[in-house]
């Protein structure tokens, strides 16, 4: 077993391998960290692409007269002059503040 450790090429190879795996600026640990960052960014990119598609559909709907009127009625409670609006809220949709 000791004859293997007396071989200078083996010692140099082990030193080089340890250097490249742990201490080098391009080490395996840094590559793993960068790969996880890339994966997170790819997931964010996919999420934002889906959101862009959803927003484009909403914009197309708001460009129509019916869609704009529906949005104004639902979000801003706007009404025509001869209408009455009744807002019905269910118990589970109300936010209660508790004094602590």
Automatic annotation (TrEMBL):
- Coiled coil spans: 31-58
User: Which key words tag this protein in UniProt?
Assistant: Coiled coil
**Keyword Coiled coil tagged:** yes
Q: Which Pfam families does the annotation name?
A: DivIC (PF04977)
Superkingdom, taxonomy of origin: Bacteria
Q: What is this protein called?
A: Septum formation initiator
